[in-house]
Write a structure and sequence with these properties.
The structure is a single chain. By secondary structure, the protein is α/β, with parallel strands linked by helices. The chain has a domain of 87 residues. The protein is built from 22 helices and 9 strands. A 5-stranded mixed β-sheet has the order 5-4-3-8-9, with helices on both faces. A two-stranded antiparallel ribbon has the order 1-2. Helix 4 packs antiparallel against helix 21, helix 9 runs antiparallel to helix 12 and helix 14 packs antiparallel against helix 15.
């Protein structure tokens, strides 16, 4: 390039044009690198990164239409679904004599009664001849001076409608409720262990029955620090957890569903070998008489006794051994047996059977920028081929055959080994080709999704909550936020009203019965 600058006078118009395109392309690469560095710098400082690009539209454009395009059908009647609470007969005026009565013409009006309701229980007190005082007991379901309907309303407004504590308190005061902010916070976080226990069982039952799950994470705030909220779920359940770590070790701890056991079994040894842990270290762990540890503290003490905590080698034997023990505990519980984990490609999610999201992979091609028209055209041609392959993969999932499986694998190789002359595009295609097994996991498992849209849609509620509420200030507040979000999203996937669920659990009189959510998950997974 330096020689070209010194001999510009000798270059013809075509050579000058090619030089300009080369400089513009190099400037685009430098700009992309600078943007990546700025984003990483902002992330390390806890600031916002650059805004996300619009989705490419590959999923929508390749979706098969279930119905022909045309006029939409009329909506069905909704009145038949309503429960009539009151009937009023309105007499007609000015009816001439000798008229015949022809029945009634119904006109339904929906309204809402929203008012405080205070009950005073006058409990009889008796003094027996022996001096003992007998007081009439309260009716069942009464705990404290606030009723179950009020608690149900507060939890629904806060968790589902995202009403802040201040606005909720003002609303209750406006309608005449005598409740303090401290009492309102008690409704939200005190004595919620039954709900949190059910949320943990939601995860366990989901992992026991799932043939696949999708995972994703987003930023969160807790105790004034940056944290990460992780989503795990599928069509039958959703579960959230917030922690300060984004590592694979943390992800495995979440998948353990609350079980802290660290066993050394075949699955643990296989995991350690897969992660290239030294055979010497594996021999020490497998040859020891103790192969099961009750919690993390006992496991850490065992590693210290074996002399592994002081080793400074790569990979870190303590981290890999701990990950392997957690994976051994997950398999020992019967979780993730044959379950495919579909992710966006983040390294912490690559455990067990793994599949990659095509939307995120295609987005990498979509985000490539170039000032050269020819290179831009080359990129668009590759994107068009990827879109067609994606559409055919979706068709294969609906009707899989061995012939189509072989043909799709060959097409994948041809697309992602293409040499376009656009260096950054060719390098990206080579990286994606190296992930062939994960991208084409649907060829062996047509039942799994090819994207993580479900997790991205589900975890958006946590991002919205972060913008509205900020962060949590206590571990119980964090657990309640994650637990109720898990229960709310799972209710939606099971077609259960969140209000009915809370009313049943809180003991609202005449509330419809809602079975335990883990039982519903198991039933829907086997249906």
């Amino acid at each position: 390039m330096a020689d070209s600058f010194r001999n510009l006078d000798r270059l013809g118009p075509d050579d000058l044009k090619a030089l300009v395109f080369q400089l513009l392309d190099e400037m685009a690469e430098v700009k992309a690198e600078n943007e990546a560095l700025r984003e990483e710098n902002a992330r390390l400082k806890g600031l916002k990164g650059r805004p996300k690009l619009k989705p490419s539209g590959m999923e929508q454009q390749t979706e098969a239409r279930a119905k022909p395009v045309g006029k939409k059908g009329r909506r069905g009647p909704k009145i038949s679904k309503l429960v009539i609470d009151e009937e009023k007969v309105i007499a007609a005026e000015g009816v001439p004599d000798s008229s015949r009565f022809k029945g009634y013409e119904d006109y339904v009006v929906q309204d809402l009664q929203f008012r405080p309701w205070t009950t005073r229980y006058r409990r009889e007190r008796w003094l027996t001849p022996s001096g003992e005082t007998i007081v009439a007991p309260l009716p069942g379901g009464i705990h404290g001076h606030f009723g179950a309907r009020l608690k149900c309303f507060v939890l629904t407004q806060y968790h589902k409608c995202r009403v802040t504590v201040g606005c909720l308190l003002d609303l209750l005061h406006d309608i005449g409720m005598a409740v303090s902010k401290r009492q309102l916070m008690r409704f939200l976080i005190d004595n919620q262990e039954p709900f949190l226990d059910e949320a943990r069982e939601v995860l366990r039952s989901g992992l026991e029955t799932a043939s696949w799950i999708t995972v994703d994470d987003t930023g969160a705030r807790h105790l004034g620090r940056n944290a990460v909220c992780t989503h795990i779920g599928n069509n039958h359940f959703a579960w959230f957890a917030t922690s300060f770590s984004k590592s694979r070790l943390n992800f495995l701890q979440l998948l353990a569903a609350g079980d802290e056991t660290h066993p050394i079994n075949k699955a643990a040894i296989a995991y350690m070998r897969q992660r290239n842990l030294s055979e010497t270290v594996i021999g020490r762990l497998a040859g020891h008489e103790r192969t099961r540890f009750a919690d993390a503290a006992a496991w850490t003490e065992h590693l210290r006794d074996l002399g592994l905590t002081g080793l400074e080698v790569t990979p870190d034997p303590v981290r890999i051994a701990t990950e392997g023990a957690l994976w051994g505990g997950i398999t020992a519980q019967g979780l993730l047996d044959g379950t495919v984990i579909v992710s966006d490609g983040a390294g912490q999610f690559k455990v067990g059977l793994h599949g990659l999201c095509w939307i995120h992979s295609e987005r990498l091609v979509y985000k490539l920028n170039t000032a050269c028209k020819l290179k831009h055209q080359a990129k668009e041609r590759v994107r068009e081929r990827i879109w067609r392959l994606y559409g055919d993969l979706k068709a294969y999932c609906r009707d899989p055959t061995q012939q189509a499986k072989a043909a799709l694998g060959q097409r994948f190789d041809r697309i992602f080994t293409t040499q376009t002359g656009f260096v950054r595009l060719d390098r990206l295609l080579a990286r994606l080709h190296a992930k062939k097994d994960d991208l084409l996991a649907v060829l062996d498992r047509p039942d799994i999704p090819m994207h993580t849209n479900g997790s991205e849609n589900a975890i958006r509620c946590q991002a919205v909550r972060r913008k509205i509420f900020g962060g949590t200030r206590s571990d119980m507040g964090r657990d309640c936020r994650d637990g109720f979000s898990s229960l709310m999203k799972t209710c939606a996937k099971q077609s259960v009203s969140f209000w009915d669920y809370l009313a049943d659990r809180l003991g609202v009189p005449d509330a419809p019965h809602v079975p335990p959510l883990p039982d519903l998950i198991r039933q829907s997974a086997t249906a």
